Amino acid sequence: MGETPFSLEFKVRDYECDMQGIVNNANYQHYMEHARHEYLHHIGLDFAKLTEEGIILVVKRIEIDYHFPLRSGDVFFVDCVAERVSPLRFAFVQNIFRLSDRKPIISARVTGTSINRNGRPFLPEIIDKAFGPVKQQ
Amino acid sequence: MGETPFSLEFKVRDYECDMQGIVNNANYQHYMEHARHEYLHHIGLDFAKLTEEGIILVVKRIEIDYHFPLRSGDVFFVDCVAERVSPLRFAFVQNIFRLSDRKPIISARVTGTSINRNGRPFLPEIIDKAFGPVKQQ
Amino acid sequence: MGETPFSLEFKVRDYECDMQGIVNNANYQHYMEHARHEYLHHIGLDFAKLTEEGIILVVKRIEIDYHFPLRSGDVFFVDCVAERVSPLRFAFVQNIFRLSDRKPIISARVTGTSINRNGRPFLPEIIDKAFGPVKQQ
Amino acid sequence: MGETPFSLEFKVRDYECDMQGIVNNANYQHYMEHARHEYLHHIGLDFAKLTEEGIILVVKRIEIDYHFPLRSGDVFFVDCVAERVSPLRFAFVQNIFRLSDRKPIISARVTGTSINRNGRPFLPEIIDKAFGPVKQQ
């Protein structure tokens, strides 16, 4: 009964592949970050404007399981589901699938928070509302 | 009477921006490389397969004029026109324009050649045909 | 009574910082990968040569806790301790500390394995020996 | 009778190599940028602080000749000589050599200027002094 998660399509760019001929591990973080920022736009938040206003969204923890590598020419999509994990923390569950056959590429969980320019917790109403109440277990 | 050049649309990803809040200079080379490789696909050449077969396409010279920076959220396109400059060299004339107002972002000229795995000039028929005869001045 | 772990010093390069003025999250994976490959050299393994010989070392899982961000000008070190977690898997425990005050920047655990060019498990003796026996709990 | 130019040593990191097994073209811009910023520190200018103060150093043109590729494990140095080319423009002549045998890797010329946050020319005294008078031809 779940909703369709937010999802963004990409194509591997050859400079993202390393000497093994597969996408370098760190680039999956880039793909996921871009999908998260596009998801934020989708729910009315602009990462760059938030940054300018001193609302600094930061990643506190990332867990990635690498199932299968992407290669030159692969088209894939990155999905993104957000949840509130505590008053000060939110998380994004993100998966990457190859488009042609829905082959799972990676599964990840990215936990974040919001701070001010001095590094202090700062989760103003605009962020609080965007991520909703803490999920009841 | 010119044809419409090959062109590819992109959107700035926030990780491509640096502390100045604009796309870092080196990333324009990434955009242009991806547009060139997509152009090659368009004319029937696959960069990754060529590499596996020992046909190594390499850049010998790049000139880039930076007119105006791209920022978070900008959508832009990169065009690509190829020409043969000598028996062993070909060039790509590439421009980037912001989509919303066609503002020129960069103009570039990228000269390349083809070598084998030992670094020797190696321009087999498949490459020779793709870039056509040397342009008469 | 522990030995000093393998450790490698780096300095932040400005292109590694994003619009928040701090090192972009994905770059910590780059730092850690470079430290792992230098660690491999240190114990007699060359990642590039292994790749050429069809011994493909891949990351299966990564967990990173981000404690504090690095900024322009920061000098830091990345340490690396390897352990065998199962017949086919090994792990690297990696931490990053700012050099000036030993402030913890990130803590990470990277689990990997070794496959052949067809993606099948392939852990030849050279790899088996390098990571030693499975650690008794 | 020239002075020894400012020079910075690097080692190739494997993630900088692409599927051809050589350093990807765009990474040479990264190396050169880092060497320029370290050169600026050397003459008393801090790129990050200048950026915070609204003195935005930008590249206007780059020309790179690629002579020979760097590979995994290569140690190299990037040198940097600055010159004033006009009241508003300065240039950096930069070369990369492999350390082991001084083999030339790339030669480049990078022309820059200084603007304010609104993109207007802004070359305050601190920058003017750093680059000295326009070179007489």
Structure description:
Four copies of one chain form a homotetramer. With 137 residues, chain A is an alpha+beta fold. Chain A has a single domain (6-131), classed as Thiol Ester Dehydrase, Chain A (Roll), CATH 3.10.129.10. The first copy, chain A, is built from three helices and five strands, in the order E-H-H-E-E-E-E-H. A five-stranded antiparallel sheet of chain A has the order 1-3-4-5-2. In chain A, strand 4 (89-98) and strand 5 form a beta hairpin. The longest helix of chain A has 18 residues, at 25-42. The relative contact order of chain A is 0.22. Chains in contact: A-B, A-C, A-D, B-C, B-D, C-D. The A-C interface holds A 19-20, 24-27, 29-30, 33, 48, 51, 56, 58-66, 68-69, 119 and C 19-20, 24-27, 29-30, 33, 48, 51, 56, 58-66, 68-69, 119.
Draw up the topology in text:
4 copies of one chain form a homotetramer.
Chain A: E1 6-11, H1 25-42, H2 47-52, E2 56-66, E3 75-86, E4 89-98, E5 104-115, H3 125-131
Quick structural gist:
Four copies of one chain form a homotetramer. With 137 residues, chain A is α+β, with helices and mostly antiparallel strands.
Descriptive keywords:
Thiol Ester Dehydrase, Chain A, 37% strand, 137 residues, elongated, alpha+beta, homotetramer
Per CATH, the superfamily of chain A is: Hotdog Thioesterase
Based on helices, strands and strand pairing, what is the structural class of chain A? alpha+beta
Helix content of chain A: 10-25%
Distance between the termini of chain A: 18 Å
Low-confidence stretches of chain A: none
Question: Biggest sheet of chain A: strands, sense, closure?
Answer: 5 strands, antiparallel
* Main β-sheet, spatial strand arrangement of chain A: 1-3-4-5-2
Query: CATH architecture of chain A, please?
Result: Roll
- Cα-atom radius of gyration of chain A: 16 Å
Number of helical elements of chain A: 3
